[in-house]
Specification:
The chain is mainly β. The protein has two domains: 81 residues, Elongation Factor Tu (Ef-tu), domain 3, CATH 2.40.30; 90 residues, Elongation Factor Tu (Ef-tu), domain 3 (Beta Barrel), CATH 2.40.30.20. Helices cover 10% and strands 41% of the residues. It has three helices and twelve strands; from the N terminus they run βββββαββββββαβα. The strands form two sheets. Strands 1-2-5-4-3-6 form a six-stranded antiparallel beta barrel.
Length: 201
Amino acid sequence: MFTGIVEETGRVVDFAPPGQGIEAWRLCVSAERVLEGASQGDSIAVDGCCLTVVQLDGGRLTFDVLEETRRLTHFSQLQPGSAVNLERSLRFDGKIGGHFVTGHIDGLGTIEAMERRGNDTYLKVRASAGSGRYLVPKGSIAIDGISLTVAEVAGDSFAVWLIPHTLEVTNLRGYRAGDTVNLEFDLLGKYVEKLLPGRRD
């Protein structure tokens, strides 16, 4: 479980396909802050996707990535040098500054607009068809693992506002219209949808 408050952006060192006795894709990321107290087996959100640390080597973290995970996220576009958002899993004695984020990506979104408006930035994203039912104004959304507040909803598209600090500490600063992002919708909305059809009056 995570909060959607990104601790730092790391850099992809390598993303290697299965082979030579390794059965999964291997993602190696350089990091600093999230290395503090990290150990093999820990969960870390990488662009909002919960991954397990399989190796620690100096300033690098290595994760196994399933083919399904690669298919359902924008990980297929990662290459050496790509910036990724990193967050350690929630501690029971820690702060919850965002919202509950599971690290299980629901799908991809495509950036429709990213515009500077005054001191802030307007970001509009189109989610997959039918996803609009999970979006409500003033509700929560995780974009690449970043906890954000939905400002507008129009069908399957939604918009959020980004403060300068968010752009400074996350990988969103490098995105443009047409780029894809990982999306995780609010857990509460998904449970409500699941429970309502079975509700009895």
